């Protein structure tokens, strides 16, 4: 359940709440954007969620949205709502720096497809959010990027999760109402987990990658960050669907994700893989306890739980993805590594150097293994409506703790679903005694984002976690 | 009347359909031909006399009972021994497969041909696993197939037996497979029509893989009409092959005789510096073909490929080496001594390819395919050289790799367009000449129509090889270990150990060192795509919801 609408400051409104107020005429897009700009001014000096705040552009867009409303035209549920994107998305007129020294002047001449779709839906772009350089790295934070390291809004000493570092932080802290990130092996879901928000990695082909800087062509999937599951349904509805500019997008009908989201989960069969699996240390006790409690809630809501395990453990999947991601990244950034290695941050350089050493035979073996992994996940999903697993195995680590940083990024149950191509969503399952978010992951059938959103919404409505906001201190 | 074993499929099929020829009689003629010539031709690895007789008898009784299945009913054919046939061992021409168990299911297109009533005569000779390094070392478990036009010459590879069989009449048609020309090169060397159809048109399920990204299955036939008949039976979507396309299969024979009046046919005469290797006789035949088609009403337009031939070749080599090695990795690590030299050399090259070079090749492939498609779509069909040389002599082994390498075949494995190797006559020594006819994606009908117009206007199909006894014995190519600098030898040795290749003799290690350099140079030579957004050609897609 979310905070009562009237009690929330404007920056803490959900998409659904703000949308309703705008439709009723009780909230102006101009006031809303001003509230977010004020919030950014108040907290982003400490939080560092933004690389670039486009205040002038946002104000102009908000005024235009308000004018349209005054003229009786409302484009839809996102009309007048402020969002921001990871700085690997192109926004016309702004540089797409990807937090790289090599791209400080790379001004985009047009919007990425998803940005264009959100703007066409009336949403207002606040700016560009922080990211690991080129949306990737080696799991570490070395403080050597051109823009400062994003902090976790629940504890500023801690990591916000990568690589979409600024997106998770912004949505949790209210410096953006929703955001777009990108996920190669967890880069949407890891920050969502660390920051206690909803992060959705849709089915590959569901959303366009056009205008998004590539990191790994065979694994990259863009995805939304929102405060609630219902908000994710609204945003996904606006961005999903085929795009002739991205040959991987599929012409599969886009359902109304919001329509069935409140139906509850009575009668749904939900598989549960409640082990971290062989090869990784067990998940944090707080994480495990939250998962167990959450399962009881799902059962109480009428779902039938089916115990299972991933036939190919997450650690084995990670071993496969690390032979696909680094060489593909190295192929994409080959010229920079050769010509400007000293201008790359350590994390990216480390990954690219590793990628250049991978043999074709090992890369191909990994791609062949991927088909097996995909089939094994299909097997787990056969006969059930969704699957619940751990997402991250750990809560957000301290930025100063190198080993914990690496463990946070590596030890997760996320890569199986990048490799298999199944949609998956991470949501908050509560807080540790220290106030750090715990989380789990809900996985669905391909192109069936609707069911995982429905499960997430049912859980969310039965728990108090959405009423608590980060104080950013 | 023509000897029965030299009948084109179309004629034999018509006679059988009219009950003027018995499938049993036809098969007996082919088996007699095999008995008469295959000891010197070596087209077969295994002749399936009893199985074939049973199939021929069944065909005969069905036809006598009024159940004629169509133009392939009762037609004897052979398949390269990389196609699975239920109940039979597939050897791939390799020592590594001699003890493999019988296959449980037939490959899709063999099953489709058998369902159309065709009679499988046997498994045909092949380079080991349908691949190699372009050279023939005479070190495989089966003797090398010989070219029926001159038994001292190479048949072209890798579908060696398929080329020899159809030219010599030990099969009326044959299935081969083509990764960089392995259907079209034997067709060219043996004076046949060999079609590599559009990527995805013919199923690959049940055919031993060589390189997933570039492998195509297809037939070698005596005439273009025979191609139309066989393709009509093999083509079409197969759920067992993830690369299979759901394209409609037209009646390829219906438009075969529509002529070429009004068609715009591009001709690629200029292949850049690599094109200098083209034999004058093949160049002349290409020009004459253009003249013949122009006289038949086609508009001939000079065009050029959108990229240097070397780009296509380098990309296809790197992809082929790397994927092939992925397939045979365990065999190279554990049983390298059982491999023939040609396969082992290719495997050792693939062992050395870096992932970034493989990815650069796949990224280049997507761009080359797009650019090549723009060219192909600008015309109705394209004429372009195929094999640049006539069949080389085994007595002059240094020329054998040139036959395999000096071609414009790999262009269309990379781009996926249909390409047919067409016999364009004979050189003064009586050796077959060739060119390729290329068409738009899934427009095999136009390729066949153009090829048929040419074939009908020329006398080449009236000549058959004599299989005169060999004048010249093969000579082994030089296999002495290459001289490599010690530091390169040390580098290759360290690399081999790092990745588990520990079974190499000192000579093999020297060979690896030379290939280490070859793989690295080929990888570096691949032009890099200018944009980060240019994706590799293999990007993963999830299946659509049913």
Protein architecture, described:
The complex is a heterodimer of chains A (473) and B (546). With 473 residues, chain A is of the alpha/beta class. Chain A has one domain (5-467): Amidase signature (AS) domain (Amidase signature (AS) enzymes). Chain A is built from 15 helices and 13 strands. Chain A has an eleven-stranded mixed sheet, sandwiched between helices. In chain A, strands 4-5 form a two-stranded antiparallel sheet. In chain A, helix 2 (29-47) packs antiparallel against helix 3, helix 5 (165-173) packs parallel to helix 6 (189-195) and helix 7 (229-239) runs antiparallel to helix 15. The two termini of chain A are 24 Å apart. In chain A, 63% of the residues are buried. With 546 residues, chain B is an alpha/beta fold. Chain B has one domain (4-303, 379-462): Amidase signature (AS) domain (Amidase signature (AS) enzymes, Alpha-Beta Complex), CATH 3.90.1300. Chain B is 39% helix and 11% strand. Chain B contains 16 helices and eleven strands. Chain B has an eleven-stranded mixed sheet, with helices on both faces. In chain B, helix 8 links the parallel strand 7 (264-267) and strand 8 (299-302). In chain B, helix 5 (160-168) runs parallel beside helix 6. Chain B is globular. The mean pLDDT of chain B is 96. At the A-B interface, helix 9 and helix 12 of A face helix 9 and helix 11 of B.
């Amino acid at each position: 359940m979310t905070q009562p609408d009237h009690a929330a400051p404007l920056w803490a409104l959900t998409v659904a709440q703000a949308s309703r107020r705008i439709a009723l005429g009780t909230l102006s897009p101009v006031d809303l954007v001003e509230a977010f700009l004020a919030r950014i001014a108040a907290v982003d000096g400490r939080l560092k969620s933004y690389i670039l705040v486009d205040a002038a552009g946002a104000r102009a867009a908000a005024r235009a949205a308000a004018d349209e409303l005054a003229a009786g035209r409302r484009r839809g549920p996102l009309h007048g709502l402020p969002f921001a994107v990871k700085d690997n998305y192109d926004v016309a007129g702004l540089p797409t720096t990807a937090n790289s020294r090599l791209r400080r002047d790379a001004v985009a001449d047009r919007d990425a497809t998803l940005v264009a779709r959100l703007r066409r839906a009336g949403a207002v772009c606040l700016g560009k959010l922080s990211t690991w350089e080129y949306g990737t790295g080696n799991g570490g934070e070395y403080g050597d990027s051109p823009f400062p390291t994003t902090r976790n809004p629940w504890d500023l000493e801690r990591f916000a999760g990568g690589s979409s570092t600024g997106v998770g932080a912004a949505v949790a802290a209210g410096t953006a109402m929703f955001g777009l990130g990108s996920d190669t092996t967890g880069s949407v879901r890891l920050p969502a987990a660390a920051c206690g928000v909803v992060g959705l990695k849709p089915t590959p082909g569901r959303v366009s990658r056009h205008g998004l800087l590539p990191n790994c062509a065979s694994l990259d999937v863009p995805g939304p960050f929102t405060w609630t599951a219902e908000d994710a349904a609204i945003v996904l509805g606006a961005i999903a669907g085929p795009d002739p500019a991205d040959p991987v997008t599929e012409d599969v009908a886009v359902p109304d994700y919001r329509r069935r989201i409140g139906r509850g989960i009575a009668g749904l069969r939900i598989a549960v893989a409640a082990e971290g699996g062989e090869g990784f240390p067990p998940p944090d006790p707080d994480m495990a306890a939250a998962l167990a409690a959450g399962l009881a809630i799902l059962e109480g809501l009428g779902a039938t739980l089916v115990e299972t395990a991933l036939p190919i453990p997450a650690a084995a999947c990670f071993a496969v993805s690390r032979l696909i991601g680094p060489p593909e990244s190295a192929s994409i950034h080959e010229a920079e590594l050769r010509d400007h290695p000293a201008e790359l941050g350590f994390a990216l350089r480390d990954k690219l150097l590793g990628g250049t050493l991978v043999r074709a035979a090992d890369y191909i073996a990994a791609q062949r293994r991927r088909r097996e992994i995909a089939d094994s996940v299909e097997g787990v999903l056969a006969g059930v409506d969704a699957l619940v697993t751990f997402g991250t195995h750990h809560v957000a680590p301290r930025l100063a703790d190198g080993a914990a940083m690496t463990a946070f990024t590596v030890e997760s149950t996320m890569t199986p679903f990048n490799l298999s191509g199944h949609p998956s969503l991470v949501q908050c399952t509560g807080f540790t005694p220290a106030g750090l978010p715990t989380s789990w992951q809900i996985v669905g059938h391909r192109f069936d984002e609707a069911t995982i959103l429905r499960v997430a919404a049912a859980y969310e409505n039965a728990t108090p976690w959405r009423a608590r906001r980060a104080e950013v201190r | 009347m023509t000897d029965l074993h030299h009948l084109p499929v179309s004629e034999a099929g018509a006679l059988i359909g009219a009950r003027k020829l018995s499938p049993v009689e036809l098969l007996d003629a082919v088996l007699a031909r095999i008995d008469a010539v295959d000891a010197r031709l070596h087209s077969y690895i295994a002749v399936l006399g009893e199985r074939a007789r049973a199939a021929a008898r069944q065909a005969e009784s069905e036809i006598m009972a009024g159940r004629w299945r169509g133009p392939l009913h009762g037609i004897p054919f052979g398949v390269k021994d990389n196609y699975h046939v239920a109940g039979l061992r597939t050897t791939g021409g390799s020592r590594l497969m001699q003890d493999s168990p019988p296959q449980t299911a037939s490959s899709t297109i063999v099953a489709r041909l058998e369902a159309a009533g065709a009679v499988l005569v046997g498994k045909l000779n092949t380079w080991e696993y349908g691949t190699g390094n372009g050279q023939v070392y005479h070190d495989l478990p089966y003797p090398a197939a010989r070219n029926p036009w001159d038994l001292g010459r190479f048949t072209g590879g890798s579908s060696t037996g398929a080329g020899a069989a159809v030219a010599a009449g030990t099969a009326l048609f044959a299935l081969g497979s083509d990764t960089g020309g392995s259907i079209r090169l034997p067709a060219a060397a043996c004076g046949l029509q060999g079609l590599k159809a559009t990527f995805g048109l013919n199923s690959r399920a049940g055919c031993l893989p060589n390189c997933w990204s570039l492998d195509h299955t297809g037939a070698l036939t005596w005439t273009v009409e025979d191609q139309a008949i066989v393709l009509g039976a093999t083509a079409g979507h197969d759920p067992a092959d993830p690369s299979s396309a759901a394209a409609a299969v037209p009646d390829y024979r219906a438009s075969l005789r529509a002529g070429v009046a009004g068609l715009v046919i591009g001709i690629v005469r200029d292949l850049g510096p690599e094109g200098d290797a083209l034999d004058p006789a093949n160049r002349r035949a290409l020009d004459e073909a253009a003249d013949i088609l122009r006289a038949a009403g086609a508009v001939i337009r000079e065009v050029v490929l959108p990229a240097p031939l070397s780009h296509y070749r380098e990309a296809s080599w790197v992809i082929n080496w790397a994927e092939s090695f992925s397939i045979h990795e365990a065999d190279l690590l554990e049983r390298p001594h059982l491999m023939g030299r040609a396969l082992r050399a290719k495997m050792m090259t693939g062992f050395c390819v870096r992932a970034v070079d493989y990815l650069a090749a796949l990224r280049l492939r997507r761009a080359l395919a797009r650019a090549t498609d723009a060219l192909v779509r600008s015309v109705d069909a394209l004429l372009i050289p195929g094999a640049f040389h006539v069949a080389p002599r085994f007595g002059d082994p240094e020329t054998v790799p040139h036959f395999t390498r000096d071609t414009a075949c790999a262009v269309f494995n990379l781009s996926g367009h249909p390409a047919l190797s067409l016999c364009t006559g004979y050189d003064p020594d009586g050796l077959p000449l060739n060119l390729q006819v290329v068409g738009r994606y899934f427009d095999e009908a136009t390729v066949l129509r153009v090829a048929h117009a040419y074939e009908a206007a020329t006398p080449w199909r009236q000549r058959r090889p004599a299989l005169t006894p060999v004048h010249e014995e093969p000579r082994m190519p030089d296999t002495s270990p290459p001289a490599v600098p010690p530091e390169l030898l040390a580098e290759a040795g360290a690399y081999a150990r790092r990745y588990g290749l520990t079974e190499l003799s000192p000579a093999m290690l020297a060979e690896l060192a030379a290939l280490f350099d070859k793989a690295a140079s080929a990888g570096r030579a691949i032009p890099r795509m200018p944009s980060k957004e240019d994706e590799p050609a293999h990007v993963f897609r999830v299946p659509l919801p049913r």
